[in-house]
Amino acid sequence: MAVDPIGIPVKSSREEELYTAKPWTLIWWRFRQHKLAVASLIFLVLTCLSALFADFISPYTPGSIDRLNTFAPPRAIRVIHDGQLRMPFIYALARTRDADTARVTYEEDTSRPIAVHLLVRGERYRLLGLFETDLHLFGVDDPRQRINLLGTDALGRDMFTRLLYGGRITLSAGLIGVAFSFILGLALGAISGYYGGWLDVGIQRLMEFIRSVPTIPLWMGLAAALPIVWDPLFVYVLITIILSLIGWTHLARVVRGRFFSLKTEDYVLAARLSGASEYRIVTKHMLPAMTSYIIAAMTLAVPEMILGETALSFLGLGLRPPVVSWGVLLQDAQNLRSISLAPWLLSPGVAVVLVVLAFNFLGDGLRDAADPYGR
Amino acid sequence: MAGFIFRRILWAIPTLIVVSFISFVIIQLPPGDYVTAYAAQLRHSGDYISLEQEALLRAQMGLNDPMIVQYWRWITNIVLYGNFGHSLEWNAPVSSLIWDRLGLTLAISTLSMLFTWAIAIPVGVYAATRQYSVLDYVFTIFGFLGKGVPDFLLALILMWMAFAWLNMDVGGLLSPRYQNAPWTIDKVINLLSHLWIPVVVLATGGAAGLLRVMRANMLDELGKPYVETAYAQGLSERQVVWGYPVRVALNPFISTVGWALPALFSGDVITAVVLNLPTTGPLLLQALKMQDMYLAGSFILILSVFTVIGTLISDILLAWSDPRIRYS
Amino acid sequence: MKTTTIQPMPPERLLELDNVHVHFTMREGLVKAVNGVSYHVNRGEVLGIVGESGSGKSVTARSIMKLLARNAIEAEGRIRFRPKPESEIDISALSRQSREMRALRGGSIGMIFQEPMTALSPVHSIGTQIMRTVMLHRGVGKQAARQRAIELLERVQLPKPAEMVDRYPHQLSGGMRQRAMIALALSCDPSLLIADEPTTALDVTTEAQILELLKSLQEEMGMAIIFITHNFGVVADIADRVAVMYLGRVVETGSVDDIFYRPGHPYTRALLQSIPKLGQAPMRRLRTIPGMVPDPFNIPEGCVFNPRCAHAVLGTCNVEAPSVVSFPGEQSVRCHFAGQLPEEVQ
User: Fold this and answer.
1) Which stretches of chain A are DSSP H helices?
2) For residue A116, which of A93, A158, A146 has the smallest C-alpha distance?
3) Contacts of B168 in chain A (CB under 8 A)
C-alpha cells in the first residue's frame, strides 16, 4: 500500500482496478489463472478451425480410394537426410507382397527423399462450400507417392484427411446437440426454478425419470427407429436431437438451482418491488447473473454429446458411411485383427479422448471462474 | 423408516408405468408393424402371404386397435403371464431369450460396481487426506483419463494389449472348448480370465468419476468442525477419518447407486459388443438393427425397470445411512 | 516470566505454557499467529482468555491439544501438563499422533467448540459419539459405555436422557447440542476443560444457561477450565483469572477483579471502555478502539498495540518491544508504561 503525504493510505492502482472491474473482466482474470483450461481452449480453437477448413488443410478428399496404398503406415515428415539438414521431405514407400502369406508390407526407401511442398494443387473441392479450388495446404508432387501422416485404411484412404473431415461432423454434432439441449434445459429449468409449485414437481419428476433410464439402450432404441433409407444428413440432425433429448436434464438442473438461489436475492426482490414485470426480472436481472454458470455447464455437456455420438456411430446405429465422423471411422477398428494390423486406425479414438479431455478441463476452468465474487 | 420405504415404493409406480409406456412407444416407432415384418420374413424364405391375409392377421392380433389398447394388452401379458411377445428374428418367445443374458449382465454390472467402489472409495479418501501429494496428482490424472476415454476404446486397447503382450484370447466369456463343458475348476478359471477385462473396463470408467466425487466430498467434510471434535476425543487418525468424514462423504455416493446402474448397463452394451460377451448388449444391438422390436423393447423395459429398482434401493440405503433424511 | 532454565511447576499448577510460538506457512508467506504466549492454569480454577478474533487465543488452545492445522509450525516454547500430582507431561515434546497425546485428548483434556451445529457428527447419534470416547479411554464394554452416556446426559441436564442418547444432532436445538457437546467433553472426567467460545453461537438466554451449567459442573467435578471468549461480560461471570490477548501475545493477566477494576494495559482499558454499562451518563457515545487489527503479515514494530494506543510514545513504543511488568497479586502487564498510566476517567 502506498501512503500519500497526509498519511492516508491509498489503494494501489491494481487494487483499484480489481474494485471497479466488470464481472466479465473478473471472470477472464480468474480463468487465465487456470493454465490447463487456457491450453485446452487454445487446443479446441485450433481443432475447430482445422475441422472447419478440413478440405483445405487435408491433402486429399475423404473418399479418394487408392488400391495400391491400403493399410499404409503413418509417414513421418523428416528434415535430415544423409546427416544433412534440408527442406521437409518424406521417404518414398515401397510396397511388397510377402510370397507366402500374401500380406502386403511397406518399406521406406531411404535413398529417395520426396519434398513436401506448401500450397500444392490436388483434388478439386469447394472451400467452405463457396469457392471451387484445388489448392491444398501441403502435399507431395510425386504422382505415385502419397503423404499419409496417419496412414491409410483398408481402401487406401488417407486417415489424416478423414480424421479432419470426421472432426467436422463429430464436433458440430456435439455443439448442435448442446445447443438443442440448452434450449430445452434453459426453458424447462427456468420454468421449474422460477414458478416452482406443481410445475416444478412435474418437471423434476420428468428429469428424474430421464436420468433413471439407461442412456445408451434408449439412444439405441430411438436411433434404430430411424429408417436406413433416409438421407444421411437428415439422420445426422435427428441423431443430434436424440442426443439432446436426454442430455438436457443436467443443464436444466443447473439452471433450476441457480434460479432457486437467485429468486431469494435482495436485488430480485428490489426489482419486483419497483414494479418490474416478470419477463423483465427474468431476462434483465436473473439471466445475466447465471450466464457464466450456464456457459460452464454447456461446456461440460459437449463431451457427453461427443461420446454419445461416437458410441452410437461405433455400434452402427448412429451416423452411417459415407458420412465421416470419428465414431464412423472407429467402426473400422472394431476387431482385434485390424487393430493389430493397423494400430493407426485407432487415431480417431485418440482424437476423441483429447477433445473430450480438453472440453472437461475447459469446463472445469470456466466453472471455477464462473463466480468472480466468490472467495 | 417403514413409512419412508412405503412412500418411495409408491413414487416408483408412476415411473415404472412411464418407463413401460416409452418402451412400448419404441417398439412401435419403426415404420411398419409386426405383420409387415412377418410378411417380409416369409418373403425372404420364399413364402408369400396376400394383403388380405396380412389384414386378417392384423385384425386377429389387434394391431388396428388404438395404441393405448395395444399397450394395455402388451403390458398385462408381461405382468400377468410373463409373456414378452415373440421374436421374429429368433422365432422364439422373447422371454426364453433374455433371462440368462440378463442374469449375466446383472452379474457383470454388480461385479463392476463392487470393483468400482473398491477402487474409488479408498483412493478418493487417500487423495483427500494427502491432498497435493504425488499420488494425489497421479490419481487426478487417472480420474481425468478415465472420464475422457470412451468405454469401447478402453475395451479395445485392453483387448489388444492382452492379445499382443500376454498372448491371451480375451473375446467372449469362455474359450470355445469350455463352451459346453460341465462346470469344473478349470472352467471357472477360464471364465475369470475372460471376465476381468469387461469388469476392469466398466469399473475404470465408473471409478474415475466417483473418485473425483469422493475426493471432493472428503475435502469438504475434512474441513468441518465435527472432524476436529473427533480428533479432540483422542481417536487416531484412521479412526477419525474412516469413522466420521468417510461416513458422511459416502452419502452422496449411496444416493448415486441408482444412477450408477443405468450407466453400467449403458457401458455394458458397448463393451459387450466389442468383447463379444453373451450379455444383453449384443442381443439388444442385433435386435435393434434387425428391427426385432418386441425383443428390443423388452430389453429396454427390463433394463429400465432394473434401474428404477436400483434407484429405489439406493434411496432406501441413503435413508438408512443418513438420519437427516430418515427423519425429515 | 521468560525462563531459560526449566523450573519445576508449583504443586497447584495443572498446566503451564511458556513462551509458545505458533507460525503458519501460507502461500503469501509466514503468519506468526502466536508469538510468545505464557500463561498457566491451576487445579480447579477457571482461566478466561479474552481477545479479538485473530488474537491467537484459539490457536494457543489448539496447540495445547496438538490439534493445529497441517501447515502450522510449533516454533518455540514449552507446554507442561500435570493431570495427576505425580505425573508431569511435556506436551510440546509429544508428536501429534502419538499414543500419549491421544490418551490426553478426551481423557485428561476435554474440549468444547464454538459451533454446536456442526461440531457433532450429523450421522451418528449423540450416544454413539459419547460411547466411542468412553470405550476408547475407559476400555469398557458397550453396555457400560451406554450407561455412562445416559448418566452424562443427565448430568448436563438434558431432559429424558434415556431417549436423548439415541437422538441425532439435527433433532436437537442449539442449546441442547451444546449440552451434548459438554457431555462428550466431560465423558472421561478430564482434569482440564478447554471451552473455545462455547456460547458465541447461542442466544443470550441459552448462553446464560450454558454458563450456569458449566459453573455448576466445575464445582461438582472440580476440573479446571480455560474459557476462551471475546466477551468480557462472560468472563466476569465465570472466570477466576483473566488473560487478555492481542495479536498473538498475552498483554495482561490478573485476577478478574484486578482486570476489571485496575486494568493495567491500554488495550484492556480500551476494551473495557467499549462495553456499554448501566448507570453510565446518558448520551455519551460508546468509545471504540481506533484503527483496525493489523494484518498478520505486517505486524507493527515494537509494541504491537502502538499504532492504536492512545498513550503510545513515538520513539519508545514503536521501536522496542515491552517486557512484562509484574504487580503484587499475580497481575502482570506487558507495557512500557505499566503502572505509570494516568488514572482512568470513568
Assistant:
1) 13-20, 23-32, 35-52, 54-57, 159-195, 197-211, 215-224, 232-263, 266-273, 278-280, 287-315, 326-330, 336-341, 347-369
2) A146
3) none
CB contact under 8 A, A339 and B160: yes
C136 touches chain B (CB under 8 A): yes
For residue A336, what are the β-bridge partners?
A: none
Residue B253 region by backbone torsions, left for phi larger than 0, else alpha for psi between -120 and 50, else beta = alpha
Segments in chain B forming alpha helices (H)? 2-28, 34-44, 51-61, 67-81, 94-129, 134-148, 151-164, 185-222, 225-232, 237-243, 245-255, 257-275, 280-289, 293-321, 323-326
Determine the pLDDT at residue A2: 39
Using alpha carbons, select from B42, B289, C208 the residue that is nearest to residue A227.
Answer: B289
pLDDT tens digit sequence for A179-211: 888 888 888 887 877 777 788 888 877 777 777
Question: Cβ of C138 under 8 Å from any chain B Cβ?
Answer: no
Residues 150-179 on B with a CB inside 8 Å of A are 150-153, 156-157, 159-160, 163-164, 171
CA distance A28 to chain B (A): 24
> What's the complex ipTM?
0.86
pLDDT in tens, B101-149: 888 888 888 888 888 888 888 998 998 888 888 888 888 888 888 877 8
With cut-offs at 50, 70 and 90, classify the pLDDT of residue A371.
Answer: low
Task: State the span(s) of chain A assigned CATH 1.10.3720.10.
Answer: 162-374
Widest pairwise Cα distance in chain C = 68
Class of domain A162-374 as given by CATH: mainly alpha
Structural domains present in chain B: 94-321 (1.10.3720.10)
For the question of whether the overall pTM of this predicted structure is more than 0.90, the answer is no
Indicate which of B1, B229, B327 best probes the interface with C, i.e. most C CBs within 10 Å of its own CB.
B229
**Buried b vs exposed e over A206-239: b needs ≥16 C-beta within 10 Å?**
ebebbbbbbbbbbbbbbbbbbeeeeeeeebbebb
